[in-house]
Design goal:
55% of the residues lie in helices and 13% in strands. It is of the alpha/beta class.
Length: 175
């Protein structure tokens, strides 16, 4: 089985993906980490030098290169904007990835992202007083695509990490 976790930044895709892959005995790939390894640059550096458009091109090529490997038994953690690009959705469909949307309520995301602002290129330059409004607006702009492309939607806002992992695992109907 091929699983692709997606959702807004701060939803827990990487952490839950690693734990889920371990539990399933699958390989785990974090797309952002793969981009950093392939380019020798951090995501923040890429954003600074090439902007979001340049980053999205690199992201697409990295996903394309990974998809070509045609691996089974893999959990792939996508970046928050990866699924927004139609060409990326086509790549995932080509290899029959089960797309899992990790849905977290905006107020929870805002609290998480306030703590991680310096690690998130999309919000690093947003003034503190505008951060909540920016996150809310970006979430709303992506929400329809997130919802429409999910093979499985998991609401995990209220759970702690272990509960969220268990909920995700149980929804996969693998036990």
């Amino acid at each position: 089985m091929r699983l692709a976790l997606y959702g807004f930044m701060g939803a827990g895709k990487s952490a839950l993906g690693k734990a889920l892959a371990r539990r399933l005995g699958y390989s785990f790939i974090d797309l952002d980490e793969a981009i950093e390894q392939n380019t020798g640059q951090s995501i923040a550096q890429i954003f600074k030098e090439k902007g979001e458009i340049g980053f999205r091109k690199i992201e697409h090529q990295t996903l394309k290169d990974f998809i070509k490997k045609n691996l089974d038994n893999v959990v792939l953690s996508l970046g928050g904007g990866t699924i927004i690009q139609p060409t990326n959705r086509q790549l995932l469909a080509l290899r029959q990835y089960k797309k899992i949307y990790l849905n977290v309520a905006v107020p929870v995301l805002i609290e998480r992202l306030k703590k991680e602002k310096n690690k998130r290129p999309l919000i690093q330059t947003i003034p503190e007083q505008d951060l909540a409004a920016y996150i809310n607006a970006l979430f709303i702009s992506r929400q329809a695509v997130y919802e429409q492309n999910a093979d499985l939607k998991i609401n995990i806002a209220q759970e702690n990490f272990d509960q969220a992992l268990e909920k995700l695992y149980l929804h996969l109907n693998l036990n």
